[in-house]
Amino acid sequence: ELIVINQEMISLNEQVTEARNYAEAIVTTIKEPLIILDKNLRVKSANQSFYRTFMASESETEGKRFFELGDRQWDIPDLRAQLENIIPDKQRFSDYEVKQIFPGIGERIMLLNAREMKEETGSEKLILLAIEDITDKRVAEYKLIESEKKFRNLADFIPQIIWTAQPNGSLDYYNQQWYTFTKFDEGQADQSWIPLLHDDDKQRCIAAWYETVKSGEPYQIEYRFKDIQTGGYRWFLAKAAPIKDQEGRITKWFGSFTDIHEQKIVAGELLKAKELAELLAKTADGAVRSKQQFLSNMSHEIRTPMNSIIGFTKVLLRTPLTDKQKEYLNAIKISGDVLIVLINDILDLAKVDAGKMNFEKIPFKLADTVSSMLHLFEIKLREKNIELVKDYDPLIPEVLSGDPVRLHQVILNLMSNAVKFTGKGKITMGVRMLKEDEEKVEIEFSIADTGIGIPQDKISLIFDNFEQAHMDKTRVFGGTGLGLSIVKKLLEAQGGTIQVKSKLKVGSVFTFVLSFQKTNEKPAKVIEEEFVLESAIKNIKVLVVEDIPLNQLLMKTVLVDFGFQLDIVDNGKMAIEKLAFGAQNPGDSYDIVLMDLQMPEMNGFEAAAYIRNELHLDIPIIALSADVTQDDLEKSKTIGMNDYISKPVDEKLLFNKIINLLKTTIYPDEINILEKGKSANISNKCTDLAFLKLRTRSDTALMIEMIHIYLDQTPSLISAMKKSMDSEDWSLLRAAAHKIFPSFAIMGIDKKFQNMTKSIQEYNGNPEQLKDIQEMVFNIEAICKQACKELEEDLTKMNTQ
Q1: Cα–chain center distance at 767
Q2: Average of pLDDT values for 661-676?
Q3: Phi-psi map region of 240: left, alpha, beta (phi>0 left; psi -120 to 50 alpha)
């Protein structure tokens, strides 16, 4: 039995030893500093965290009384009593804060937690003392308190109301401005801002603040606070922003109330002023529109009879006449031209004043533009025996981007004045480059004459409307006094400037400066069709829509001279009926419409809109307008008119516009292939080079080049169309159709196939239309193959000629 008891004791001791080792292992690995004290409050052991934290060694610690640790005596009676009572009374204590100085690390602030630790053997009772070093935390708190004191001291001097709030949104601090405004006492219990809110703002503001606290996002809102002194309300701007710790938790809200009452009053006054300004602007705009409408009406009323006067004068001049009759008719024509110039000057001035003058940005050759303008004055200069000198800077880039038409207008006005007021001597046109950078050039133009000069007291007036330097000479030299005013406004609208220097009986120098963009684009090649009546255009049929009998007769005379067929109707409604009938009966269809804009019952705008939107016809429409204001031109384009021509009608210009719009439908009588309705089973020649000859002026080399381009690009485009059909890539299909469309017109391929490409471009993948689209692609492939074959034969013939 003793042996058994002895074995059990050994086993029990082993278990106790194992348990003690296990407990010591746990204590050792805990990161919090721990000390084990015996009942006499001497250190029995400590873990590694204690030694690292307080930079102490085992020899300096173990066996010493707890109150002997550190550099100073800190035997606190209350702490001693609590530690001594732990073992007999099985007590514990928590978060007992003390301070002590340790060698090497100085004063530390610690939180102590203690409890009894009893060994299994029961031979000894110990105290487990956990120590938390809270020095850094307390220092940070102290700094925060000091910072808050400084902040509050500073906040009292800020004119705004400053406040802070807890993370939950409850306000815990106001600066002195709050108490000044609210008349609250600093110790007053209820200092909430909510009761001060205006009733109309209360619900909105409370909801916004609660949402801000919930989301943690910054806050800004305007509302009215009650002013205790006056009993009224003042506008404030409230702002708030969260203050967050390193973990992103909101620790505080910082905010302000800023008095913006005066700003709101000023803003209200500004709003009223703005509304008044807008009203005045509308009134002024209405006056401008009234002015524009008046000028438009006057232009129409004057141009309408002038159209007939000048038009019939031109017609009569083409008939057999005696010399005396020609002299009289030329006098009528010159007088009419003068009146038209006057009308154009007045309208141009009105457009610039109204800010409705548009300026183009197109590539052009400046040298060619200047030369072409000077050519206009060659005859007049020879008549007056005046020498013309041109001084052009060769450093100016060949091609520039700008508005050559408006440049023409400026040079034309200045050259006209120079020629008008110069009786002998010379006129010098100078063009030189002032500045150049990577994007633009600045050009100076000068026109110097040896004319009668301008009095010094008139120089400042010559750019005013209807002003002339020599009013007593008006009857001698003529003019409206608008030319220089228009020049100045055209230049300034493009960012340019103009100056003049003059001396009586010596001459004048007008100098203007304009900037132009540099460009690598090539200028459009202008090819004007000859004013000849070839058999290729004999079959054109025109619908003239005009309500004035005299103008009807004039248009009939002009168009018959062109060799065109025509019908005339009195208004837009009758035009619609004619076109609708022609759409159903191809034999009675028209190739183009000449549409007057101002007509009774249905005007030209209404008729054109109906033709496009209701009849869905793409027939070319040229507007005939006695009123060329920018508003009407933009309106005509928006509706779908293709072009316009002003009255009095220039016959050559009208002819060229008609030919340009119908160039895709001009075919010689003897090669009129692929009549409407004919299937893609082609047996006749499908190409017609008549239009290509017309555009190239029968330049064989240019024709060969254009044919080669067609032959190079067409097979790949056809392949792309077929591939896109197989893959159902409709965007690729539309792109290929778009690229192939222009070549049909150039090579004289029937318009039927051009219409097919238009339909393909509009296809949006509708399964119901797929079969028709597939058939169109097949037909286009067939016509293109035949066209390529024919063009290769044409090339062979051209190369052997």
Answers
A1: 37
A2: 45
A3: beta
Two tokens, residue 482: 């608008």
CB-based contact 751:665 (threshold 8 Å) = yes
* The residue type at 396: I
- Which pLDDT belongs to residue 353? 61
Beta partners for 643? 622
DSSP string, 453-502: ---HHHHTTTTSTT--S-GGGHHHH---S-HHHHHHHHHHHTT-EEEEEE
Residue-wise pLDDT for 157-170, tens only, equals 777 888 888 888 88
Contacts 24+ apart (CB under 8 A), 777-783: 777/721, 777/722, 777/725, 777/733, 778/680, 779/680, 779/753, 780/718, 780/721, 780/740, 780/753, 780/756, 781/718, 781/721, 781/722, 782/680, 782/682, 783/680, 783/682, 783/686, 783/749, 783/750, 783/753
Q: What does 22-40 look like in DSSP terms, one character per residue?
A: HHHHHHHH-SS-EEEE-TT
Decide: pTM greater than 0.85: no
Nearest to 659 by CA among 686, 703, 695, 693: 695
Nearest to 711 by CA among 776, 775, 778, 796: 796
Model confidence at 342: pLDDT above 80 = no
Helix (H, G, I), strand (E, B) or coil at 344: helix
Mean pLDDT of the chain: 79
Higher pLDDT, 717 or 8: 717
Residue 381 in 3-state DSSP?
helix
Residue recorded with tokens 């809270």: 134
| Structure confidence at residue 575 (pLDDT) | 92
The model's pLDDT over 188-225, given as tens digits with 9 standing for 90+, comes to 656 678 888 888 988 888 888 888 888 889 989 898 98
Count helices and strands in the chain by DSSP H and E runs:
25, 22
The Cα 108–Cα 94 span in angstroms is 18
Residue-level pLDDT at 9: 61
**pLDDT higher at 701 or 187:** 701
Q: How far apart are CA 596 and CA 603, in angstroms?
A: 8
Q: Are 48 and 28 in contact (CB under 8 A)?
A: yes
Say whether the peptide bond before residue 159 is cis (omega within 30 degrees of 0). Answer: no
pLDDT for position 682: 39
- The first and second tokens of residue 125, run together, are 């009772």
How is residue 377 annotated by DSSP? T
- What is the spatial distance between Cα 554 and Cα 674, in angstroms, rounded to a whole number? 35
Amino acid at 502: S
> Rounded to whole angstroms, how far apart are CA atoms 563 and 370?
36
Tell me the three state secondary structure of residue 184.
coil
Other C-beta atoms closer than 10 Å to the C-beta of 471 total 10
